[in-house]
C-alpha cells in the first residue's frame, strides 16, 4: 500500500516518506510535493522492466518492447511501405498513438517517415529501415529464445504436435 498523505506522529515516530514500487518518493525542496527518486538496477531513461544483459537476464530492445511499437514494427515488417491510415486502421489505434510511436521509432532510426500528397490531400508513409529490420529480427529471436524453441519447427510453419 502506498501512503501519500502525512502520517500522524506518535511517540518516537519520524515523518513518513511514501514508497513506490519503482523507486522511492522523496519530498522536494518546494512545498512538500513528492518526486520520484529512481532506485534499483535500471538506468534513468530506460524502461524498468527491461533488464540489461547479465546472468539470467534477457536483453529485449526497449524501443520495440512497447506493445504499440511492437505492433507497428511487426506490421511494417510485412510490407515495403505502408500508409499512415492503413497502420491506424489495421492496428485499431488513434491517430495520436500511431503518430507518437512512429516518431519514437523514427528517432531510434527504425522507421523512415515520408510525407507527400495524393492529389491535394496530405499523406504519410512508413517504411522499416535496415536498422529497424535488424532490431525486429533480433527481438523476435530473443523472444524465441525465451520460449525455448523457434516458432517454425517445420518447413510448412505448422507447430509441432505430439
Outline:
The protein has 162 residues and is of the alpha+beta class. The chain contains 5 helices and 6 strands; from the N terminus they run E-E-E-H-H-E-H-H-E-E-H. Strands 1-2-3 form a 3-stranded antiparallel beta sheet, with no helix packed on it. It has a 3-stranded antiparallel beta sheet with strand order 4-6-5.
Strand and helix order = EEEHHEHHEEH
Number of domains: 2
The outline comes out as elongated
Distance between the termini: 46 Å
Q: Order of strands across the widest beta sheet?
A: 1-2-3
CATH superfamily of the largest domain: Winged helix-like DNA-binding domain superfamily/Winged helix DNA-binding domain
Largest sheet: 3 strands, antiparallel
CATH arch. level architecture of the largest domain = Orthogonal Bundle
What is the number of E strands? 6
| Contiguous runs where pLDDT drops below 50 for at least 5 residues | 19-30, 35-42
Average the pLDDT over all residues and give the rounded result: 76
Oligomeric state as shown? single chain
Strand residues, percent: 15-25%
CATH class term of the largest domain: Mainly Alpha
- Quickly count the helices: 5
